[in-house]
Design a protein that fits this description.
Shape: globular
CATH topology of the largest domain: Neuraminidase
Helix content: under 10%
CATH architecture of the largest domain: 6 Propeller
CATH class of the largest domain: Mainly Beta
Distance between the termini: 60 Å
Number of strands: 67
Number of domains: 3
Strand content: 35-45%
Number of helices: 4
Structural class: mainly beta
Largest sheet: 5 strands, antiparallel
């Protein structure tokens, strides 16, 4: 952020010409400045002369430029009990003929109605010819408009009252807050577009008496669909023969801390038919409770640039190309492919332009990936088709016209196309997100070229459901097994309510007259319900098959056809960390084993493959692994995502979509050769942010369970163990370049000896090497014994060196969270004289062993 940029809402307005970018700033002793910047670099080129600008609480607030290059800036006419207790009501627009000129008072308006003016104003046209200047009044439905004809200003403005405006956004902003007008011409008969907080951009006739059309909110809903989203600072600009509308868009709000981006959309065919939205990157999260910001555009050397200022956060410029270059071509390796915010090629992010906060689910089938793109608030949706071999977007989509029409229901939470699945025969299914008062529908396509038909339509409630609970949603996620033209089963989870709905299909006919069989679970957490974003997965196409369910407040749970709980997966198995969000489950069979595939969000996206072939009562020795690397940490307000899979003989491909972050495919059991990293005089690196030939240098084995390291001159020892009393391993690497060797330490006796049964215990937690080269490893103990094992060398069997069961001395035996030991240290030779020390987490104690 520039040094001159303040953190107290001191920068709110900007304007652009091909030569300069102008920003009003009050972050100086004079409480006013107009910064002059290089529009291509943001470099500071100085300031406009502000001599003669009248002082005040906000003497300058917004700045605009005319087509002939003149610069105009206005004050803020307003009342504030602290900053303008008597009201500063005179509204003044100053004009500079060029950046080196002195200002003159161009418009002085006495403001007899004491309107709040100057949050924004707009100039359209040439001040030496014909132009129009508008200023919308904050907190009211009024707009002032001045005309310039043949270079002459009419100093008496039109006072326009807008008719028919209603609140169209559900957030905490004040109605008519930060209003702005985008004129669509320079005469008294030309219409204009009005936008403010709580109101979507709306086109009025010239006198404001009639609304001509409104923006289809589904085509312009905030990219992250977050509650509290909003837009302001509307502008229009031309590019490639098309007319675009752009605004500053709030990307969700946590009352004061928020982020914003530019949204632009093609309105050449009218607001109601606006299409092809463009979203810029955000400027970062900062305190901006008033949501102040601005947008400007200009053309430099034939390229359109759109500039964004967000108070307390910064400013940026983006080149705008409606005919953008094709998608980035990503490498496809033995391990798979990725398109995400985490990766870039030749300076371009590999995240697809279409992937945003309105892409939440995906399905694999027919060699393709199907991805719905649908905002909430009853927006029309699409289903994109991707090439599953590399994730590239194909130039066709599913026909969803009938789906959108059937699921048209005015509700802020309504999602017309929520999930998509593919049955075992390649038929495609898609469902809406159903709320109380609407029908839950599943449509089906015979193939990609066919029209959809209604397969299931049903209106809950069923069982004991509370019909008034509109937040009990069906279904963010569904699942299907079998062939819907023959025998199949479809299942949908009911969020925030312990029920699952199941449809049985026999010989292509939906049984039970189309009504679902209801499985009411006896699994109820403390909150009395599952939590949001419930999902369910079928084990087979048998009508009495077992079912796995998951949601925000429960761990993955296996139930039978009667809804009885058979097993609950331990949290440490199912998720990368505690308190995961929005988990999604799939059930699959591969290589003679049964697996649960789970997606969850914990600070980033995580997909986990869990072998559920063993004992699901004790979950002893369960095996699982993280699937690939996470794709990013871009804002994912609802923590949504999805995963699917494809099994072909020895091949298991897992597809993951992380909302707003990326999409990828991992060949789970395909481990190609490690990347050769350069070794220099200063060392070597293998990590997520480095790549060689477009392949990440981060080792495939390095995931969330790699937790400790020790080294000799020749080798590095790495502990790889999950929390939750699961078996671990100690890998051996070449210390010269970090490459993985084909041998590991024998840890079977260690895993067996450290099997304490503690939910938080780690059987192998730390590894160290003494001065004579003996290898030592410890567990992390909460309830049982603390042990240290020792190996004479890499080929030997481990022997127990230390075993002790706290509490010792002052320890409180009831405090099981006092862990021993994440880390320990050794000095000397454990076969001669040595000292070992261990820290006790969460207590002021250290344990020491002396060897002589």
């Amino acid at each position: 952020m520039p040094e001159w940029f303040g953190s107290s809402h001191t920068e709110r307005g900007l304007a652009a010409t091909p030569e300069y970018l102008f920003v009003v700033s009050r972050n100086n002793e004079a409480n006013m400045a107009v910064k002059v910047l290089n529009p291509l670099t943001g470099a500071d080129l100085g300031e406009l002369d502000v001599t003669g600008v009248a002082p005040g609480a906000l003497p300058l607030n917004d700045v605009e430029t005319s087509d002939d290059g003149q610069i105009l800036a206005c004050n803020l006419a307003f009342y504030h009990e602290q900053w303008a207790a008597n009201g500063t009501w005179t509204f003044t627009i100053y004009k500079w003929s060029d950046k080196d000129a002195a200002p003159v008072a161009y418009i002085t308006y006495d403001n007899p109605d004491e309107l709040r003016l100057g949050d924004f104003f707009t100039v359209k046209g040439d001040l030496t010819g014909d132009a129009v200047i508008t200023a919308a009044a904050g907190g009211t439905n009024k707009v002032l408009r001045w005309y310039v004809s043949n270079g002459n200003l009419n100093t008496s403005p039109d006072l326009i009252e807008l008719n028919g405006l209603v609140e169209t956004k559900n957030n905490t902003a004040g109605l008519y807050g930060l209003p702005k007008v985008a004129p669509l011409g320079v005469t008294s008969s030309d219409p204009f577009i009005y936008s403010s907080n709580k109101i979507f951009p709306t086109k009025f006739n010239a006198d404001g008496s009639n609304i001509i059309e409104e923006l289809n909110e589904g085509n312009f809903y905030s990219e992250n669909m977050a509650p509290g989203a909003d837009e302001n600072a509307v502008i229009t600009f031309e590019d490639d023969g098309k007319t675009f509308l752009a605004t500053a868009s709030l990307m969700g709000s946590s009352s004061t801390m928020n982020n914003a981006q530019i949204k632009a959309i093609d309105i050449s065919n009218g607001l109601a038919n606006a299409a092809d939205p463009f979203f810029s990157k955000g400027l970062g999260i900062a305190e901006n409770a008033m949501w102040n910001g601005d947008v400007a555009s200009t053309v430099i050397d034939g390229v359109t640039y759109v500039f964004h200022l967000y108070a307390n956060t910064g400013l940026a410029g983006f080149s705008f190309d409606p005919n953008a270059e094709p998608e980035v071509k990503v490498p496809v390796t033995a391990q798979g492919w990725r398109r995400c915010v985490q990766d870039s090629i030749n300076g371009r992010s590999t995240r697809p332009d279409w992937l945003n906060e309105n892409t939440r689910t995906l399905a694999y089938g027919n060699g393709h990936l199907y991805v719905p793109v649908c905002a909430a608030a009853n927006a029309e949706g699409r289903i994109l088709i991707l090439d599953a071999s590399d994730g590239s977007l194909l130039a066709r989509e599913l026909d969803v016209k009938a789906v959108n029409e059937a699921n048209d229901f005015e509700h802020d939470g309504n999602v017309r196309i929520a999930d998509v699945e593919v049955d075992d025969a390649g038929h495609i299914l898609a469902s809406n997100l159903r709320l109380t008062g609407t029908s839950f529908k599943i449509f089906a396509w015979d193939d990609e070229d066919s029209a959809p038909y209604l397969l299931v339509e049903v209106t809950p409630p069923f069982g004991d459901e509370d019909p008034a609970a509109t937040w009990q949603q069906t279904a963010y996620y569904m699942d299907v097994k079998g062939d819907i033209k023959g025998d199949a089963v479809i299942i949908a989870a009911r969020s925030n309510y312990s029920s699952v709905y199941k449809w049985v299909i026999k010989d292509g006919v939906v049984q039970n007259e189309g009504n679902p069989y209801v499985h009411v679970l006896n699994l109820l957490p403390d909150d009395g319900h599952w939590g949001a974003y419930g999902s369910a997965a079928l084990e087979s196409s048998d009508e009495n098959t077992n079912i796995w369910v998951d949601a925000d407040l429960i761990d993955p749970t296996r139930i039978n056809a009667s809804g009885e709980t058979l097993s609950v997966m331990p949290t440490a198995v199912s998720t990368s960390e505690t308190q995961p969000h929005r988990t999604t489950v799939k059930y699959l069979k591969y290589a003679g084993n049964d697996y649960i595939l789970e997606w969850n969000w914990v600070w980033a996206d995580h997909t986990r493959l869990i072998n559920v072939s063993g004992n699901l009562e004790t979950w002893d020795d369960v095996e699982f692994e993280e699937v690939g690397s996470y794709m990013g940490q871009a804002e994912n307000a609802a923590n949504l995502g999805d995963c699917d899979y494809f099994v072909d003989g020895d091949t298991l491909r897992i597809y993951t979509l992380s909302t707003n972050n990326g999409i990828k495919m991992d060949n789970v059991f395909e481990y190609g050769p490690e990347v050769d990293v350069p070794v220099t005089a200063t060392g070597w690196r293998r990590c997520a942010i480095d790549s060689v030939d477009q392949v990440s240098t981060k080792p495939q084995w390095l995931g969330l369970n790699a937790r400790a390291v020790a080294a000799t001159k020749e080798h590095i020892y790495v502990v790889n163990t999950a929390e939750g009393n699961y078996p671990g391993e100690i890998l051996i690497l070449d210390a010269g370049n970090g490459s993985l060797l084909e041998k590991t330490l024998n840890v079977a006796p260690v895993n067996q000896g450290n099997n304490t049964g503690g939910d938080s215990d780690i059987r192998i937690s730390d590894v160290e090497v003494d001065d004579a080269g003996h290898i030592l490893a410890s567990n992390m103990r909460t309830a049982g014994a603390f042990n240290i094992y020792v190996w004479e060398n890499e080929e030997s069997e481990p022997e127990k060196l230390v075993e002790v069961t706290p509490p010792i001395d002052i320890e409180d035996p009831s405090m099981t969270w006092q862990q021993t030991a994440y880390y320990f240290d050794v000095k000397g030779d454990v076969k001669g004289n040595a000292v070992i020390v261990v820290a006790r987490a969460n207590t002021a104690t250290t344990y020491k062993w002396v060897i002589k």
